[in-house]
Amino acid sequence: MNENNAIAVFQGKNIRRTWFNDEWWFVVEDVIIALADSKDPKQYMNKMRNRDEELSKGWVQFVHTLSVPTSGGPQNMNCANTQGIFRIIQSIPSPKAEPFKLWLAKVGYDRVQEIENPELAQKRMRELYKAKGYSDEWIEKRIRGIAIRDELTNEWKKRKVQTETEYAILTAEISKATFDMTPSEYKEFKGLKRENLRDHMVKVGKQKLSNTFNWPNI
Q1: pLDDT band at residue 195, thresholds of 50, 70 and 90?
Q2: In this prediction, what percent of the chain has a pLDDT beyond 90?
Q3: By the 8 A CB rule, do 139 and 129 touch?
Q4: Neighbours of 87 (CB within 10 A)
Q5: Got the DSSP string for 114-154?
Q6: Residue 80, CB-side half-sphere exposure with 13 Å CA sphere
Q7: At residue 90, what are phi and psi to the nearest 5 degrees?
Q8: In contact, 19 and 5? CB cutoff 8 Å
């Protein structure tokens, strides 16, 4: 499937999306239609912003007008990335939005627990990789790889490496020497977009990479 024509399934309805700034951006009106059952999403959007002053203040920061493929050709539509969509969902007073609000609260609670007890973070990471079909051997290698990467970046910090650009250059040099490809070239070779390259260094069984977006299973 062409990445620009990818459709995300959201509560049984189609949410159009487009690729922008290295991440997926979703059509805000589609989300409102899915969760609020509004026949006039533009009007609902305006009422929502009037209701939520803070949402309205930050609107232009996380909602952008982007070109989105439609059956009638490309159209400019209001879009937000995943973080922006979750913020908008918080302002939708609909029973359909409640499962997402509860899920976000659970994620926040889990994150606080992980900060207090880092072992929980590693345990959850193992469970996530296991659920995705990775073998125990692969998971152990992945976790060791994360630890080695942390040691490497700590060493870089000691040597006064500070900017993201400097880290990217060093990472690219290591990747080039190891795989004869930079991380960006390797991701293109693997057909990846937002996915973590290190999670796809080895193909898992018959699993294929997908351009479709899976929202939380709640």
Answers
A1: low
A2: 18
A3: yes
A4: 19
A5: HHH-HHHHHHHHHHHHHHTT--HHHHHHHHHHHHHHHHHHH
A6: 20
A7: -60, -20
A8: no
Please tell me which of 8-12, 89-93, 147-151, 160-164 the model is most confident about, judged by mean pLDDT.
Answer: 89-93
So what's the pLDDT on residue 56? 93
In this prediction, residue 107 carries a pLDDT of 81
Task: Give the residue among 208, 81, 196 at the shortest CA–CA distance from 129.
Answer: 196
Q: Please, are residues 28 and 79 in contact by the beta-carbon 8 Å criterion?
A: yes
Residue identified by tokens 């699993």 is 207
Q: What angle do CA 216, 53, 101 make, to 5 degrees?
A: 20
Query: How do the domains of the chain map onto residue ranges?
Result: 3-110, 117-200
Gap between the Cα atoms of 57 and 53, Å rounded: 6
Phi and psi dihedrals of 208, rounded to 5? -115, 150
State yes or no: pLDDT of 148 exceeds 90: no
CB 10 within 8 A of CB 31: yes
Task: Give me the pLDDT at residue 5, please.
Answer: 39
Question: Which alpha helices (H) appear in 10-117, and where do they start and end?
Answer: 28-36, 41-51, 53-62, 82-89, 98-116
pTM score over 0.90: no
Phi/psi at 172 (5° precision)? -65, -40
C-alpha 94/C-alpha 175 separation (Å) is: 48
